[in-house]
UniProtKB/TrEMBL annotation, chain A:
Compartments, as annotated in UniProt: Cell inner membrane
Keyword terms, alphabetized: ATP-binding, Cell membrane, Membrane, Nucleotide-binding, Transport
Keyword presence, Ligase: no
Superkingdom of the organism of origin: Bacteria
Annotated protein name in UniProt: ABC-type dipeptide transporter
Recorded topology in the membrane: Peripheral membrane protein
Catalysed conversion reaction: a dipeptide(out) + ATP + H2O = a dipeptide(in) + ADP + phosphate + H(+)
Pfam families tied to this protein: ABC_tran, oligo_HPY
GO molecular function per UniProt: ATP binding; ATP hydrolysis activity
Species, as recorded: Halovibrio variabilis
Stated family: Belongs to the ABC transporter superfamily.
GO cellular component: plasma membrane
Main location: membrane
TrEMBL record, chain B:
GO biological process terms on file: peptide transport; transmembrane transport
Source superkingdom: Bacteria
Stretches assigned to the ABC transporter domain: 23-284
Pfam family, one: ABC_tran
UniProt xrefs under CDD domains: ABC_NikE_OppD_transporters
Protein name according to UniProt: ABC transporter ATP-binding protein
Species for this entry: Halovibrio variabilis
Keywords: ATP-binding, Nucleotide-binding, Transport
Length: 338, 353
C-alpha cells in the first residue's frame, strides 16, 4: 500500500443557500519519496485538496466523504490530538506567502525551537543545534545570525528558505507545498525550486506540489493531477501528460502558454472561464468551453452535457472525458474486427 | 540633442533613433523620500541640528525610445523600477530629473490642464482589475467617464454608441452595461479595463502587468485581445511585465531593467537568441520551460540590493559571476553592438563575455 492514499475524497462547504461541493471524488496515492503535482486554475479546488489531506479545512467546510489514509492511519477520522502528531511532524506544509506563515513577533530561532519542542522532548540547546543544521541545509548565508533575526529583516526568498527549513525540521515523510514560489521573482523561484527538489531527493521526502505553473510542475514532479471545477480530470506521469495531453482542458491549458505559440501569432485560448462551484454546468463541467463535444459525424455527443465522465485508461494516464473514451472504444473495436 | 550634454555617456545612436520615436525618455531619475517632512528630517548629531534625508532611488538614469507601432516590453524583477517608469511616463509621478518627450514635445513639466490633450492620446491599463474599476460605478458609467471628459461636445447618443462599439471590440456584451465591476470575473474585468483605455481612441497604451493577476487560460484571451487591438488600431505599447514568456510572444523590442537602470535593450528575437548581459542570461535561464527536464539555470548568488544605498559601479556587480574591480567602481553605459543590441556591461565591452 502506498504511503498516502486518498480515496473518493469529498469536501463541501455548508453555506446559507446550500452546500457548495468543493471537491468531488478525488482519489490519488503517493509513494515514499515520490513527487506529485496538482495543477489547475484558481477555483479548481487544488488548495482545498491540499488542506483537506491534513483536515485543515475551516468551517463551514467539512469532509463529507471518502478517506485519507497515511501510513495505515485514516487521517480524517483522527482526533485533533492525533492529527497534531501528524501535522508538521510527519506531513508538513509550505504555504504561498512566507510573510503570513512566519510569526512576526518571534525570532526565527524561537519559531524553529518551538516547533521542535511541540513534537519532541528535547532540550532548547539541542533544538537550536538542529535548527542551525537545517538552516545550513537550505543554504542560508550566516545561519547563526539568522536565528536571532525577525522575519521582517529578511527578504522574500530568504523567508521562503526558512519556511522550507521549518518544514524539514522534524524529518517529515511528505511535504505539501501550496504555490511555494508564486510570490517570488523568477530568478529566486528557480533557486527555491531547485533547493526544494534537491532536499526532497536527498532525504527521500515525498512532495505534493500545488501550482498553476505548468513549467514548474514539468520540471519538479514525476506524476501530476489536473483539476477542473473540483474534480480531477486527468492524472498520470508528468512527462506523458505534458508531451501528449489527452483531456481537451489539459490540451488547452498547455497550448495557451505563450511558449507554445509562434511569437507574434495569436495564442490558442480556451474560451469562457471556470464555472462557479455553486452553479456547475450539467454533465462534464468543461463542456461549455470544450471544442470536442461533437462526434466525428458533426452531431453533438449527448453524454457530454448529461453525464459526468468517469476515468478511462489511456496509456499510463487516466482521463475523465467522453470524447477520449469514445475514441479509445472506436480503436478497440477496430482492432477487434481486424 | 538640444539639452546640454553634461556627461560623455550619450549613446551615439540616440539621434538616429529618435527620428521615428513616439516617446523619448531621457536620463530619467526618480527618487522617493523615506524621511518624511522637513521637521521629521531634523536630527541632533554631535550637538548640532542637521537635516538628514534618505531616498529610494527607484530609477537612475533611464534612456528609452519607443517607436511608433511597436510593443516595447520592459522586464525585470520586483523593485527594479519598471512600474515607476510606466507611471512617470503617464504623468502619474513627476520625475526627479530628466525629460519625457511625447511626439517631440516635452510633457513631464506640464500642468494637468496642459496635459489633458496628451492624456487622450495615451492611456494606461493596470495590473489588478479588482482595484482599477470603481466599485460604485456601473460598467456603462466607467466607460462613459473618459468620453465625457475628453469629448465635452459629444451628444448623449454619440457617447452611448461609442461605448457600445468599444464593448463589442473587447468581447463584452453591451447588455452588461448596467452591472457593477464585482459581478464580473477577473478576465472580464480586465477586458472592461482595456475597453476603458480604448474608449478615447488612444495611440499609445501603457500596460503595467496587465495579465499577471489572471489565470493561464484567461491570460491567453487577454493577450490575444491586446494583440488584436494593436493590429486594428495601430497602437504603440509600453508593456511592463516580469514574465519573459509573454515578452517573447508579444514584444517587438525588450528592455531589461535591474535596480533602476536599463542593462540591455534588443529586439525580442535577438535578446532571446543571444542574451548578452549576465543578468539577462540568468533571467532567461530561470524561465521554467515545459520541454527540457532539468535545465541548467545560472544560479545567481545573493539578492537584489536595496535601492536606498545603491552599490557603487555596476549595480549588478554583487551578484554577477563575471564582475571584476572595474565593475565595482565604474558605472557601465549602454553601448551599441553590431546587431543593434545595446548592453551596459564592462565584461561585454572588454570582450570577456
Amino acid at each position: 500500500m502506498a504511503l498516502l492514499d486518498v480515496n473518493n475524497l469529498d469536501v463541501r462547504f455548508a453555506l446559507r443557500h446550500g452546500d457548495v461541493h468543493a471537491l468531488r471524488d478525488i482519489s490519488f496515492s503517493l509513494e515514499r519519496g515520490e513527487r506529485l503535482g496538482i495543477v489547475g486554475e484558481s477555483g479548481a479546488g487544488k488548495s482545498v485538496a491540499a488542506f483537506s489531506l491534513l483536515n485543515l479545512i475551516a468551517k463551514p467546510g467539512f469532509i463529507a466523504g471518502g478517506s485519507v489514509t497515511f501510513d495505515g492511519q485514516v487521517l480524517n477520522r483522527l482526533s485533533e490530538r492525533g492529527l497534531r502528531k501528524v501535522r508538521g511532524n510527519r506531513i508538513s506544509m509550505i504555504f504561498q506567502d512566507p510573510m503570513m506563515t512566519l510569526n512576526p513577533v518571534l525570532s526565527i530561532g524561537e519559531q524553529m525551537v518551538e516547533c521542535l519542542k511541540a513534537h519532541r522532548r528535547i532540550a532548547s540547546k539541542e533544538a537550536r543545534a538542529i535548527a542551525l543544521d537545517k538552516l545550513q541545509q537550505v543554504q542560508i548565508p550566516s545561519p547563526e545570525t539568522r536565528l536571532d533575526q525577525y522575519p521582517h529583516e529578511l527578504s522574500g526568498g530568504m523567508r521562503q528558505r526558512i519556511i522550507i527549513a521549518i518544514a524539514l525540521l522534524l524529518d517529515p515523510d511528505i511535504i505539501i507545498a501550496d504555490e511555494p514560489t508564486t510570490a517570488l521573482d523568477v530568478t529566486i523561484q528557480a533557486e527555491i525550486m531547485a533547493l526544494l527538489l534537491d532536499l526532497c531527493e536527498q532525504h527521500n521526502v515525498g512532495l505534493i506540489l500545488i501550482t498553476h505553473d505548468l513549467g514548474v510542475v514539468s520540471q519538479v514532479t514525476q506524476r501530476m493531477l489536473v483539476m477542473y471545477a473540483g474534480r480531477v480530470i486527468e492524472q498520470g506521469p508528468t512527462r506523458e501528460i505534458i508531451n501528449d495531453p489527452q483531456h481537451p482542458y489539459t490540451q488547452g491549458l498547455i497550448n495557451a502558454l505563450p511558449q507554445m505559440a509562434t511569437p507574434g501569432e495569436k495564442l490558442n485560448q480556451i474560451r469562457g472561464s471556470m464555472p462557479s462551484l455553486s452553479n456547475l454546468p450539467s454533465g462534464c463541467a468543461f463542456h461549455p468551453r470544450c471544442d470536442f463535444i461533437n462526434r466525428a459525424d458533426g452531431q453533438p455527443r449527448p453524454a457530454c452535457t448529461q453525464q459526468v465522465p468517469g476515468f478511462v485508461e489511456s496509456g499510463n494516464c487516466q482521463v475523465a472525458c467522453h470524447m477520449v473514451a469514445e475514441m479509445l472504444e472506436d480503436r478497440r473495436l477496430k482492432e477487434e474486427t481486424l | 540633442m538640444s539639452a546640454p550634454a553634461q556627461t560623455l555617456n550619450v549613446p551615439p545612436t540616440q539621434n538616429e533613433e529618435s527620428a521615428d520615436s513616439l516617446l523619448q525618455i531621457r536620463d530619467l531619475k526618480k527618487r522617493f523620500s523615506l524621511s518624511g517632512d522637513f521637521l521629521e528630517q531634523l536630527r541632533f548629531k554631535g550637538g548640532k541640528l542637521v537635516r538628514h534625508q534618505e531616498h529610494v532611488h527607484a530609477i537612475n538614469g533611464v534612456n528609452l525610445d519607443i517607436k511608433r507601432g511597436e510593443a516595447l516590453c520592459v522586464v525585470g524583477e520586483s523593485g527594479c523600477g519598471k512600474s515607476t517608469v510606466a507611471r512617470t511616463v503617464m504623468g502619474l509621478l513627476t520625475p526627479s530629473e530628466g525629460e519625457i518627450r511625447y511626439d517631440g514635445n516635452r510633457i513631464d513639466n506640464l500642468s494637468s490642464r496642459q496635459l489633458l490633450p496628451y492624456r487622450k492620446r495615451m492611456q494606461m491599463i493596470f495590473q489588478n482589475p479588482y482595484a482599477s474599476l470603481n466599485p460604485r460605478m456601473t460598467i456603462q458609467q466607467t466607460l462613459e467617464e473618459p468620453l465625457r471628459l475628453h469629448h465635452p461636445d459629444w451628444k448623449r447618443a454619440q457617447i452611448v454608441d461609442k461605448v457600445e462599439d468599444v464593448m463589442h471590440s473587447v468581447g463584452i456584451d453591451p447588455d452588461w452595461g448596467m452591472r457593477f465591476g464585482h459581478e464580473f470575473s477577473g478576465g472580464q474585468r480586465q477586458r472592461i479595463a482595456i475597453a476603458r483605455a480604448l474608449a478615447v481612441d488612444p495611440e499609445f497604451i501603457v500596460a503595467d502587468e496587465p495579465i499577471s493577476a489572471l489565470d493561464v487560460s484567461i491570460q491567453a484571451q487577454v493577450l490575444n485581445l491586446l494583440m488584436e487591438a494593436q493590429q486594428a488600431r495601430n497602437l504603440t505599447y509600453l508593456f511592463i511585465t516580469h514574465d519573459l514568456a509573454v515578452v517573447e510572444h508579444f514584444g517587438t523590442r525588450v528592455a531589461v531593467m535591474y535596480l533602476g537602470t536599463v542593462c540591455e535593450i534588443a529586439s525580442t528575437a535577438t535578446l532571446f537568441d543571444k542574451p548578452r548581459h549576465p543578468y539577462t542570461q540568468a533571467l532567461l535561464s530561470a524561465i521554467p520551460r515545459l520541454k527540457d527536464d532539468r535545465p541548467q539555470h545560472i544560479r545567481l548568488t545573493g539578492e537584489v540590493p536595496t535601492p536606498v544605498n545603491l552599490p557603487s559601479g555596476c549595480v549588478f556587480h554583487g551578484r554577477c559571476p563575471h564582475a571584476n574591480t572595474r565593475c565595482k567602481q565604474e558605472i557601465p553605459v549602454l553601448q551599441t553592438q553590431n546587431d543593434g543590441t545595446r548592453v551596459a556591461c564592462h565584461a561585454v565591452e572588454e570582450g570577456r563575455l
